[in-house]
Amino acid sequence: AQTVTQSQPEMSVQEAETVTLSCTYDTSESNYYLFWYKQPPSRQMILVIRQEAYKQQNATENRFSVNFQKAAKSFSLKISDSQLGDTAMYFCASRAPDFGNEKLTFGTGTRLTIIP
Amino acid sequence: EPEVTQTPSHQVTQMGQEVILRCVPISNHLYFYWYRQILGQKVEFLVSFYNNEISEKSEIFDDQFSVERPDGSNFTLKIRSTKLEDSAMYFCASSEPGGETQYFGPGTRLLVL
Questions:
Q1: A103 phi/psi in degrees, rounded to 5
Q2: I need a surface site. Which of A76, B4, B10, B30 has the fewest CB within 10 A?
Q3: Burial class, B45, CB count within 10 angstroms (exposed 0-12 / middle 13-18 / buried 19+)
Q4: Structure confidence by residue, pLDDT tens digits, B57-103
Q5: For residue range A5-24, what is the model confidence (pLDDT) as tens digits?
Q6: Residue contact A103–B31, C-beta within 8 A
Q7: Which residues of A touch B33 (CB under 8 A)?
Q8: pLDDT score at A99
Q9: Taking CB atoms and an 8 Å limit, are A33 and B100 in contact across chains?
């Protein structure tokens, strides 16, 4: 079974600043996938970034990057040059790679507010 | 860009009534999922579906729930006799063959009175 923990229920940061959201996970799998999803007030779930556990290089998507520490089972999300549109709930999620076990396991989320 | 669509966006129903939530996954995707999110809580997995059968389901997905792919495009979630605690946002998701990423629809907000 996989578990995902997000210890920061809420965060706020000034526009244009950098913010890091924390996520830890636990899994017995040797390979797995990790994701950050964004849920704006419209409540749609939008993929922000993904990381494959067997890849040591941290994933990057424009202003979004991760710090993946496999030994520590940590997967934090860094948002650089934050924008007002980044205001949303952010969920960390994991899944196993096996067929028949594709479900995503989500954390409880971090509500991020970008202050103008 | 292709996207997952869901209808209706909102549904209000009386306790004990049947509801059907509809989803149109991305056209070349073969894996389909339903999740739910009770207000203020995290997203929870309900069921995954592949090759016209359930591949995995959670303990939430009891006999009151069923899924179906009635044609080549729709994927439905039926709740036979709704309870108050079924009030939630229901998300459909799909992924392509061999793909690790699930793409979510905009959700259906279900309110059971």
A1: -60, 145
A2: B10
A3: buried
A4: 999 999 999 999 988 789 999 999 999 999 999 999 999 877 778 99
A5: 999 999 999 999 999 999 99
A6: no
A7: 102-104
A8: 65
A9: yes
